[in-house]
Amino acid sequence: MQAQFARSVEKACVILVFAAVAYAIYAWIVYGGPYRWLAELSLQWFGSYEPKLIFFATCVVLVGPPAVVLIVLAKLAPDLLRRPVGAAPQSIAARVANALTQPGKLESPAGLRVLAGIGVAALAVGAGAGWLGYQKSMAPVTFVPFEVAGKGPPPASHVALTGIAVTGLIVEHKETISGSTRIHTYFPLIEPGWSKSEPIRFFVRPNVTVYRDGGTMYRLHPDTPPFKMTQTGVLFRNDLPGLISAEYEKHGFKLASPHYVLDTDPGSDVEIYWIVAGVGGIGGLV
Question: Which of 50, 95, 162, 244 has the fewest CB atoms lying closer than 10 Å?
Answer without folding.
Answer: 95
